Amino acid sequence: MNFIRKPFGYEPVLTKEDVKNSVQKKKGPRPNNWKNTLLRIWKIVDEQRALLIAVLLLVVLSSVMSLLGPYLIGHMIDEYVMKEKFSGMPLLIVGLIIIYFVLALSLFFQNYWMIGIAQQTIYRMRTGLFHHLLHLPIAFFDKRQHGELMSRATNDMETVSATLNSSFIQVFSSILTLTGTFIVMLSLSPLLTLLTMIIIPAMFIATRWITRRTGKLFKEQQAALGALNGMIEETISGQQVVKAFSQEERVKKEFCEKNSRLRRTGFWALTYSGYIPKVMNFLNNISFAIIAGIGGLLAFKGHVTIGTIVVFTEYARQFTRPLNDLANQMNTVLSAIAGAERVFSIMDETVEKDGGEVDERHKLLGDVEFRHVSFKYELAEQAHTLKDVSFHVKPGQTAALVGATGAGKTTIMQLIARFYDVEQGTILFDGIDVQKLKRETLRSQMAFVLQDSFLFEASIYENIRYGRLDATNEEIEEAAKKANAHDFIVKLPNGYNTILTSDGSEISQGQKQLLSIARAFVADPVILLLDEATSSIDTVTEVKIQQALDVLMEGRTSFVIAHRLNTVRNADIVFVMQEGQMVEAGTQQELMETNGIYANMLKQAGIL
Amino acid sequence: MKTVFSYVKPYKWPAMIAFCLMLIELSVELIQPLIIAKIIDRGIIAQDLGTIGYWGFILIMFAIAAFLSGIINSYFASHTAQSFGFDLRNALFSKIQSFTMATYLRFPTSVLITRLTSDVQQVQSVLFMSLRIMLRAPLAAVGSLIMAFVVNPKMALFLLIGTPLLMIFLYIIVKKGVHFFGEVQRRLDRVNRVLQENLQGIRLVKAYMRGNYESSRFQDVSNHLKIDTIKALRMMELIQPVLLFVMNVSLLAALWFGSIDVRNGSAQVGELVAVVNYALRMTGSFSMFAFIINAVSRAKASSERMEEILLIESGIEEYKDVNSLSPDIQHSESLRFEHVSFQYPNTKKSILKDVSFTVSPGETIAIMGATGAGKSTLLNLILRFYEPTSGEIYINGQQISKWPLEKLRSIIGYVPQQSMLFTGSIYENVSWGKQGAKMEEVRAATTQAQIHQTVENFPEQYKTRVGQKGVNLSGGQKQRLSIARALIRKSEILLLDDSTSALDVKTETAFWEALKRERATMLVVTQKIRTAKEADKILLLDEGQVIAYGTHEQLYETSEVYKLIVLSQQEREVDA
């Protein structure tokens, strides 16, 4: 008994409730979900309708040819070989060779085109997913592991790919054979046809019983695979820490746990889906016995001829075979649906809202205003990161953000960049509500040096050019010189053409920051955001860059988070942040006069 | 494929059982037509209801037997396949965990991910199929061929005329297929790569509005994946039509020459009909054949990729026995570099050149130098992430290459330049440094790292979830958690790689104050003179060379470079 409940020690994945729920929801959302998912895939497939029709016609052609071949051979044996008539045979054989050639060609081309259609569909889905992903709000990414998201574009898409490659043709040709056989059977004996149909409800029930389980199991399996992918990506990206703390055994254990979840769901999914062909075979045999038994009875009574029964049993077998194939395809299709659903669920996430009321070519002046802005990160259960923050920075001014770590300085930067939307209050650019501006308008006129500098796997040229795609190589080198990056770049084996890898170690953290600064130089923005732009750079270099940065900031609205007093002292306005609130704000002069926190700070530093 | 398939071995019994059950099922399927013939001949045609009932009953019994073996086969086959995949993934992951950091440079994360998931999946599904249906097609074909030979060897021989040609054809296709499918998997690596990069750099992509640019980059890699997949699949699609055509023409040949024999009287018409029927049955299994060859080629390509990892022999960290450490550990010196030079594998530039210095127990050394001078690399060598190109490093008087790796790293607390937190709670992240650490220990470490108060203020305190790489924490908070993670280990040696850069002056001062109580030997990479002054000695690096080593006062006197650094920091910093 225990083996049936927990074979090989595999704990059941589905509870009775799971299965029951899926029964109760029969008319509810679940089947609809399947239908929707299939419809969405179909819409993409349908974009290549002409090719698709060609494939379907070829399937018809190959079906006809594969019937014609054996028929003609039978004819040849009956009419020529049996009757020892050889004169017409060579002609017939030539005819047959042509038929077989056409069959081979039509088989090849239907698959040839179908593979094209399937892979084009996959390509469209995959790039669609990626495109959508890039338009999701930052908050979406805060909640998810990279590897888990990656799994959707690779592993989940693979299940769809495998199904589209083969199932479409198989389903269609099965339906074709099914209809054909059904018509022939009906013309032979409606009564016996009815008998054959008896098992169809049983097949239907059995298929439902199984798919009700496999549908959910496949989804579980893909989810487990996604979780495993997430863990692998995170662990290997952080391998340095794993090694430094000798936690290899621990991550192996964690991997093993996630891995066994995948094994368990995979086991049940495979086992249940393996039922289908067996059940179908069994029902076929029963159906055969019924036809033979009842048919025999009917023959005694003279309702049907014996010849009909004999022929009929053969057709009954032919009838159930495609049915069997169809039921098998159900499983493949279900696993594809499980994968596709996970892909579509991302594509159904709402993208960042984008204002469109203001012309996208709107030139920013650089006037930035916060009005009673409050904000809280979705993931952090902590209290508000920003509480009722208001300030106004005029075009060309430099504003320095000052305060302890976690006071909300970076958050203000993130809100200016519109990575997040405010919870309360308004942010205005040139007096226009940020909600009315397109992100493109906004960000294309900003440049950033973020706390974590990130480089792409590309040449140094490309990485700096990221700031402005039409920058020439000369402009890039110019920017690199200003950022003090030129010297180390030319010492690299391939200079500016050196390909960087984002997890490689060709260049140091500080050098990465220099490149980020060069990127901002290239961008030529109206608004400049510098978040600890020089934190990993040695102070000698920093002084040099600072002069260039000062030039850059001239005439541009700049927001600066920095340790260097010089930078802060040069700012037109200083904002002092404390636990999410702006406790002091004003020009250097004003703050000195108030004699508050900032003035104190300077006193402590020995400036005043 | 050999190495990969050795992972089936532990499951040879379930596999055998699944295999036997498949044979039972197959044999029942072969017997069925005979029973059906009996029902028709003796029952229906002879109008004998009793016989129909009798054979009908037997048919149903056989059907039940086949059904049961089929169902049970499901369990055994799926157990074998899943466990095989499970073990293979574990083995791959373990192997990857034993890589040296240099080996990771050869295999980027994205490549390893594909191998651990997609590649395993390919092989696993082939194993499952082979235990379920794979034998059916070859058996049916071979069975029919044998029957044809039994009936009339001469005619049957004609069925084989195309075989040599087919063999060559299949050999070429499989060889090319393995190559093409390998290419497909490599394309998948690239897709993974671009995906990972964009997820990691999502803020940058958004900040510079590079959505369309990145989309087109992704379209490019997806397109290559598409093209190569199509190429591989289309080539494999050649198999079925070619097999069918050759077989059908052979059949016609058999028919033609067979009919000549019939005319000569050397063969019976019945024999000819039978041979033709068997030939037709053979062709029926060809689509399955094509499918199998396709799957096997794909599995072979994936196996080769996995074996590339499983069979790596160099670039693996050695785990020596703890006892290999000689007992004469000196405690007069904590750390010593002797003429250490280093360059990253496959690069020409030396990052460290002839570095020598000694650190006494309990000393604090500040490491300073320009960006790219080799500061982080120096710390990496102490942890033995990389091996020096020449020279030796000693810890407690013992060459670090002689230390068992785990022992060596267990006495070191390391705070990397980038905080690198993991998905999980704050407690989990801090106790990462010491498994199963008590709450008091965690609190002590976080207090020392000046983050305890902040954590206490979170509504969920130490249970607060940290997103991947600590996305929901501020830069300073991440750094302090990363410091706490190292402090909890109470290590002999602490390595801090510029890990207080995001802290405000007040917090930082308090932190260094709290750290003074530590008795550990400390190596602190820093940009700040203020921090360096507090250290016992300062190690000044320039382009990989030690240009000064001594106290603040000594260096201020003797080193121009150091003076320059001090000058650059004349005006102090604020709580910014």
Structure characterization notes:
By secondary structure, chain A is an alpha/beta fold. Chain A has three domains: 44-135; 170-350, ABC transporter transmembrane region fold, CATH 1.20.1560; 396-408 and 446-604, P-loop containing nucleotide triphosphate hydrolases (Rossmann fold). In chain A, 64% of the residues lie in helices and 9% in strands. Chain A contains 22 helices and ten strands. In chain A, the strands form two sheets. Chain A has a six-stranded mixed sheet, with helices on both faces. A four-stranded antiparallel sheet of chain A has the order 2-1-4-5, with helices on one face. In chain A, β9 and β10 (581-587) form a beta hairpin. In chain A, α5 runs parallel beside α12, α7 runs antiparallel to α12 and α16 packs across α18. Chain A starts with a helix and ends with a helix. Residues 23-29 of chain A have low confidence and may be disordered. In chain B, β11 (537-542) and β12 form a beta hairpin. Helices cover 62% and strands 10% of the residues of chain B. Chain B has helices spanning 2-5, 12-45, 49-97, 101-106, 109-132, 136-151, 153-159, 163-200, 202-207, 211-237, 239-264, 269-284, 286-310, 375-382, 405-410, 426-431, 439-448, 452-457, 475-487, 505-515, 529-534, 552-558, 560-568, and strands at residues 335-342, 352-359, 364-369, 390-395, 398-399, 412-415, 424-425, 465-466, 493-497, 521-525, 537-542, 545-550. Chain B has 23 helices and twelve strands. Among the domains of chain B are: 151-317, ABC transporter transmembrane region fold (Up-down Bundle); 333-568, P-loop containing nucleotide triphosphate hydrolases (Rossmann fold), CATH 3.40.50. In chain B, α5 (109-132) packs antiparallel against α8 (163-200) and α6 (136-151) packs antiparallel against α7 (153-159). In chain B, the strands form three sheets. Chain B has a six-stranded mixed sheet, with helices on both faces. In chain B, strands 2-1-4-5 form a four-stranded antiparallel sheet, covered by helices on one side. Chain B has a two-stranded antiparallel sheet with strand order 7-8. By secondary structure, chain B is α/β, with parallel strands linked by helices. Chains A and B meet through α4, α5, α6, α7 and α9 of A and α2, α3, α4, α5 and α8 of B.
